[in-house]
């Protein structure tokens, strides 16, 4: 059975718990730890959900916010449901295909 996995990026929530409310407040704290990101990069990381994140940045965020990676990333996993047909039965086999094909048209001259 297939599993559907996902995650929720909770950086904004954890920042608010530590009274850090803007991305610009985070930039100098990251620089103190050797992470040199532009204000726009930090803003995207705070306001969105990153698809890729270096472990150095994750470690710096955990140090700044005194938290663990599990506090920043909430993961979910569930079984993917099996697709069912509308009737719950097996799909019906196709009808005689020859009957479904168009017939050639005959073009007659004007009389």
TrEMBL record:
Signal peptide: none annotated. InterPro entries: Cro/C1-type_HTH, Lambda_DNA-bd_dom_sf. It comes from the Bacteria. Residues 10-76 form the HTH cro/C1-type domain. GO terms for molecular function: DNA binding. This is Cro/Cl family transcriptional regulator. It comes from Streptomyces cahuitamycinicus.
């Amino acid at each position: 059975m297939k599993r559907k996995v996902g995650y929720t990026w909770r950086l904004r929530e954890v920042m608010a718990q530590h009274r850090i409310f803007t991305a610009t407040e985070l930039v100098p704290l990251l620089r103190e730890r050797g992470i040199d990101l532009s204000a726009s990069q930090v803003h995207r990381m705070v306001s969105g959900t990153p698809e890729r994140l270096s472990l150095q940045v994750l470690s710096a965020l955990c140090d700044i916010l005194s938290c663990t990676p599990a506090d920043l990333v909430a993961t979910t996993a569930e079984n993917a449901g099996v697709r069912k047909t509308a009737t719950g039965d097996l799909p019906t086999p196709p009808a005689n295909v020859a009957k479904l094909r168009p017939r050639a048209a005959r073009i007659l001259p004007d009389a």
